[in-house]
Amino acid sequence: MLTHLDSQGRANMVDVTEKAVTEREATAEARVRMLPQTLQMIVDGEHPKGDVFAVARIAGIQAAKKTSDLIPLCHPLMLTSVKVELSAEGADAVRIVARCKLAGQTGVEMEALTAASVAALTIYDMCKAVDKGMVIEQVRLLEKVGGKSGHYKVQA
């Protein structure tokens, strides 16, 4: 059942008033594929715009906090933790892992996905002058804990 549709099939915000406040956490990831020399420039700290990972981390955190402004039917949430980790993966990719937590009445999957996505977009923005062919890929939910639907973990 799609919870964002009313009985007439119209989009609406889910009413979470009666839901219990529980601890909830979600982890999402994204990857940015790029030329090996672009990744090397980032890792070596030689990018003319500064520390790419630091800027992308802050952008991801900020995005998680603004998810309800971007996704129309998301509830504004009082996040208690947002962590965005970036690391070189192989010779030509950056892996981004975003984790969001709260004690609340609805989950934080969209916040984690938004954080990972915006961090990836920020990497693209900062590096597009040297590598327009970068590809953002594999944006996905890795794990969610808490709430009525229980625990979900992606199969490896």
From TrEMBL:
Keywords, ordered alphabetically: Lyase, Molybdenum cofactor biosynthesis
Pathway participation: Cofactor biosynthesis; molybdopterin biosynthesis
GO biological process, one term: Mo-molybdopterin cofactor biosynthetic process
Enzyme class: lyase
EC number: 4.6.1.17
Residues given in the record as substrate binding sites: L73, C74, H75, M110, E111
Reactions accelerated catalytically: (8S)-3',8-cyclo-7,8-dihydroguanosine 5'-triphosphate = cyclic pyranopterin phosphate + diphosphate
Active site: D125
InterPro entries recorded: MoaC, MoaC_bact/euk, MoaC_sf, MoCo_biosynth_MoaA/MoaC, Mopterin_CF_biosynth-C_dom
Source organism, top-level taxon: Bacteria
Function: Catalyzes the conversion of (8S)-3',8-cyclo-7,8-dihydroguanosine 5'-triphosphate to cyclic pyranopterin monophosphate (cPMP).
Subunit: Homohexamer; trimer of dimers.
Family: Belongs to the MoaC family.
Protein's name according to its UniProt entry: Cyclic pyranopterin monophosphate synthase
Organism name: Pseudomonas putida (Arthrobacter siderocapsulatus)
